[in-house]
Amino acid sequence: MPTPLPVPSDAPLFLHLAGSLAFVAVAGRGIGWALDAWVRRAPGAAPPAEPEPADRSGEAPAEAPPHTKSD
Asked: Which residues are CB-contacts of 58 (< 8 A; sequence separation ≥ 6)?
């Protein structure tokens, strides 16, 4: 296998790094656009995953579960 010629500077390294960062930036922007479009297509009146708890502002706070009580 032939030996590579010595490189007098770090220019190839920096060019590779710049290209990699540009690729990641473009890919991230594309993923962001795709997620934004996907969220915008979601139905606006989707039912909640869990029912919302009733308003209990007038009641006393519940006791702590047995495993969290300190002795």
From this structure: none
